[in-house]
Structures are given as C-alpha cells and as structure tokens.
Design brief:
With about 220 residues, this protein is α+β, with helices and mostly antiparallel strands. It contains twelve helices and five strands. The protein is globular.
Length: about 220
C-alpha cells in the first residue's frame, strides 16, 4: 500500500496547526494555556493547544534531539485528547464494512489509524520551523452549535499564505477536532479515498477492516524499523 501518498499533505497540516510565534508561546502561562484549551470558544481552544504544544516542544528540545520519537509522547499527551479519534476512524471506512466488523476489530483499526496519524504529525514537528498562524472569527458565532468550522491562515515569508480549515464537534462540553482541510484537501477524504482503493483490491471482503488494520501495522513497523 502506497500509504506515503495518502499522508503526503499531513506534515503540512502538522506544522500549520501548531506553528505560532515563539514570543506568544513563551509569554503564555501554563494556567492560561489550560484555560484556553478548556474554553467554550473553539478559536481560543485551538490557540490553547497550539500554545501548549509549542511550549512543550521548546522545553523538551534536548530530549527530542537525543530521541526524535520523544515527540510521539508529546503529541499523545497534548494533542490526542482533543482529537475525535473514534469519529475519524468511522469516517474513513465505508459504513457497511464498519458495521460488519466486530467491536474488537473496530478498536484495533482505530488504534492503528491513530498511530499512523501521530507518527506522521511527530515527523512534521521534528522539522518544525517558526511561522505565524492567524485564526479568524467563526461566521455566525459558535453559541448553540455542536459543530463548527474554524478558518485559519499560515503566513509565510517565502510564499503565499496557506489556508487551513479545522472542523470541530462538541463532545460533551469539550470541542474536539475531527477533520482538517489544507488548501482544499481534506485529511479525512484523503484517507477515505486511499482506504476505498485498498478495500476494492482485496480478494476477500471477509474481515476487511482487520485486513486493513494489518496493513497499517505493517507500514508502521517498516517506518519504525
């Protein structure tokens, strides 16, 4: 499976998500960052995650240099709790295949899918360079809504701005990210298209989700090896 093609846009998203001006992160207290992440305002919520992740990358710089995989731990601690992994996993698999799979196979796929995303994010963060990101107010506000779209723009010194759209849904009282679009390319749609091709190429549709999970695990093992 040419999963590298599937993930080609993800490093762009990764850097875009968390590349704020260093001065901003340095001046933000831990208490303030925590309050931002818990904010009911989705824009403030995204800024809070950005601040917290960037501050942690700066604090753990020596550990990351010694062991680049340390970023996996940072991403799992700071980012993953605010990503709707279950919704993302369901969204990239045809409903018929998902519903025909056992809960154990669904859980195994969700974990394998998450691992691929985390490792790709981590690779991008290891190559982090300072940029500036602008978040724009939500059209029509966010009050009374369970799903919102947050538009943002990466300001680059060496090229035109990069347009990033975050899609969030409310899980209880907490906002969670479930998709991102970079220059018109949806992360979920990219995965969905690639996985659809994988399912189509399978000689047997029996345990299709388990077969895909195994391929993801094989890719992860090759990448880590």
């Amino acid at each position: 499976m040419k999963i590298q093609k599937l993930l080609i846009a993800l490093p762009i998203v990764s850097v875009a998500c968390f590349a704020l001006q260093p001065a901003l992160a340095a001046s933000t207290s831990q208490a303030s960052m925590a309050a931002q992440v818990k904010s009911a305002d989705p824009v403030v919520f995204l800024r809070g995650i950005s601040d917290e992740l960037l501050a942690r990358l700066k604090t753990d710089r020596s550990q990351i240099q010694a062991n680049p995989k340390h970023v996996y731990q940072i991403v799992n601690q700071i980012l993953v709790p605010y990503v709707d992994v279950s919704r993302m996993a369901r969204s990239v698999v045809p409903r018929s295949i998902w519903m025909a799979s056992s809960p154990a196979d669904q859980q195994a796929f969700s974990q394998a899918f998450l691992n691929i995303v985390v490792r790709t994010y981590s690779s991008a963060l290891n190559a982090y360079t300072d940029q500036t990101i602008k978040y724009f107010p939500i059209r029509g506000g966010y009050q009374g809504k369970n799903q919102v779209q947050v538009n943002s723009q990466i300001v680059r010194s060496d090229g035109p701005p990069v347009e990033i759209i975050y899609r969030l849904a409310k899980n209880g009282s907490q906002w969670k990210v479930y998709d991102m679009t970079v220059e018109g390319v949806s992360l979920l749609q990219s995965f969905r298209s690639q996985f659809a091709a994988e399912f189509s190429s399978m000689s047997s549709k029996s345990n299709a989700l388990a077969q895909l999970t195994q391929k993801l695990k094989q890719h992860e093992a090759q990448t880590n090896g």
